[in-house]
């Protein structure tokens, strides 16, 4: 079977580049690569066949990526009539659908559509078919270094489009069997405190989980237990296997065969996958179970690594875009870590031979230690932190969920309609969950934010295991010490004192947040927007600062509008001693009026507007600040409008000259007057704007005005995060999409002018 594992490895090598490609080549290039792979395949050598298969899988990945981008070019930019099947709905304003036809033509495979903040004319549930006139929009996400990559996530989930509904008509109003089952279980558990957790475990519906429950699961590192994933599908397969084995006890000996329990396990896994609504993690786990079954049916004793390699290969060949999924790599690496751990650090023989009950918790502790240390690199990369209480929490949470809650829950799904039995079983599941959450709440808050300096050090878990098992500390002691020092050094590195500094305009959607960074310290100009259950400070600014190991010292709030001050409360909670400047005259705020000057980290700050008297509010009261290091100058303008711009220019024409200007009021036609642009006489203009904003900003006329004055235009909607690297009189602007992380899944999709 060496050839099979060799081809599996080649398929992974062929599909993996999809994570790093800057652009997907056109079909003629793909066709040429395909022809080359076929030619190489005729070379009579095993290595040639491996190369040909890798190239073939690479072409398959490119074709899938190309097809995932096709809807952006074909269907966006104008209203279209579609038919779609409802996959998920909260019954209110958030829905997920599969588009099966467009303008009367069948769409295959169906394309996922997300609808947010839209109400349908009738009640909604999974299985309904709707005919709708919609304006389809390509996926677009806020892109910041170290932030959540929503564009990559949407493509991995096969939901590349969002829809704004113009009209909708129900074609079939009946719900599918799963939706009816979900409604039935929801009614049966409506009085239970942990109904949201029950529905998450049974159907993958997490909308009912409270914010407190989600936060507790995150703090204790047990969130993975409350989403239907590989572990839960495997448990369902195990239950199916046990049921079949028990049934075989009544069979005559000649009727007992090992295939029946295997087939039963796959059927049980398939049913649970269907209950989960066919979400991608569940489908991937089911494919893994199917591959495991096929390998077992071969009758050969496969090693753990061979099974792992075949499963990863099969999943990626089935859906190459899975390579973009963080949850897939977490699951894959968790299994790889277990195999590695038990091969290189097996349980001590004395523990294996022990007959007392105590060996089971010790064996579970041994497993959790391996998972914690070996998954640390991926956890830090994806979540930018780790839970210190996860080790203890999972010691009791994993067995409780695996051997009590999930089996009881599966039984409850079957006997819900039985008088008394179903009611008491759901009550028992709820009490088990209450016990779990009570125990979790007793643990201290364990979440630790970790910055990017620790990424290299997090690999030490793997290295320590290898060094210990191979006894390298005996023969290469000095080399091992040098290696460990090299891992620790990045965490001890301090900011060098030099003339360089950075200005970063974060991609915060509609709003403004600009970070001035020097020697590990940050001065922030505005703090972005806020909404009922969050704000930019909590969601974007604080994670960005902590990931880059930066300390926030001062903030300027340009004016009182929410899209410029929304994140301030979260920042004040994180840094209570934060110094705030503004023209608002609020308690605790230092002044930010025309003529004010101060220095910070060797940079000169001069306030150009507004005057202290008369008091001004709104956009025209924005605090306009010039920042300079003696060579480079940048002007921050907030939302100042034309009237205030002209007043600011009186007798101050030469003072406003700058290399770069932050575009006032997000590029609105009420700002950026021609006299201001001529007075600044800069080289580049940076605008903080959001795609699909209700005001169609930036105005095309304003963009043209800047370009006609010789400015190079940048905006966060097109570029993502914008960073200016400054060193004396040399400076350079780097955008997320073009320079920082140029990936095919990071591009601006659809019509280039579409920003409304």
TrEMBL record:
Q: Which domain of life is it from?
A: Bacteria
Q: Quote the Pfam families the UniProt record gives.
A: Competence (PF03772), DUF4131 (PF13567), Lactamase_B (PF00753)
User: Which SUPFAM superfamilies does the UniProt record give?
Assistant: Metallo-hydrolase/oxidoreductase (SSF56281)
Please state what class of enzyme this protein is: hydrolase
Q: Which Gene3D superfamilies match?
A: Ribonuclease Z/Hydroxyacylglutathione hydrolase-like
Keyword vocabulary terms for this entry:
Cell membrane, Hydrolase, Membrane, Transmembrane, Transmembrane helix
**The keyword Nuclease appears for this protein:** no
- Please state where this protein is localized: Cell membrane
A single GO CC term, please?
Answer: plasma membrane
Identify its membrane topology class.
Multi-pass membrane protein
Q: Could you say which EC number(s) this protein's record lists?
A: 3.-.-.-
InterPro entries in UniProt: ComA-like_MBL, ComEC_N, Competence_ComEC/Rec2, Competence_DNA_uptake, DUF4131, Metallo-B-lactamas, RibonucZ/Hydroxyglut_hydro
Q: Name one GO molecular function term.
A: hydrolase activity
> For this chain's UniProt record, which GO biological process terms are given?
establishment of competence for transformation
Presence of the UniProt keyword Transmembrane in the record: yes
Ranges annotated as spanning the membrane: 181-203, 223-244, 256-275, 281-297, 304-321, 327-345, 357-382, 388-412
- Which residue numbers delimit the Metallo-beta-lactamase domain? 510-691
Q: What is this protein called?
A: Metallo-beta-lactamase superfamily hydrolase
